[in-house]
Amino acid sequence: MPVPEFILAARAKIGHDLMWMPGVCGIIFDDDERVLLVKRADNGQWAPVTGILEPGEDPIPGLVREIREETGIEVNVGRLAAVTADGPISYPNGDRASYLTCTFRCTYRSGTAQVCDDESLDVGWFSLDELPGLSERQLDRIRLARSPEGSAWLSDGSQAAAFDARQ
């Protein structure tokens, strides 16, 4: 997908200055506990599906949208696995960004995983013992999302308290 319009509008005002953005990441498991990864077009690296939330978009619907746009599959979003600050990242055009990323454990529901936009070169399911070369950050995200239950990890190393909205 092209750069979202709201980012282009902000960049027209701030140039390449550091921009703080809300991000989402889906660690998607199938019934065999394989992980779905995409090979990113911008750097050729394998990674989980990530994306930027649109203004006013909640994290879960935004993540479902990103996964559908990038891979063509539908998922069930499970628990929040981690909240991290990522960056700053410098892009080839000079833009700089940092992200507050909410990582969720997801499970495959339907569809055929495939490249659906220009953000990815390839899409594939990988067993946990045959993961392609991933960054430590991506390996941590997968490790933190493996369990279907548990508290979210926060980037200061603390464990978030389990949250039940019904109480």
From TrEMBL:
Its cofactor is Mg(2+). Pfam families: NUDIX (PF00293). The keyword Hydrolase applies. The keyword Hydrolase applies. Transmembrane segments: none annotated. InterPro entries: NUDIX_hydrolase-like_dom_sf, NUDIX_hydrolase_CS, NUDIX_hydrolase_dom. Residues 19-152 form the Nudix hydrolase domain. Keywords: Hydrolase. This is NUDIX domain-containing protein.
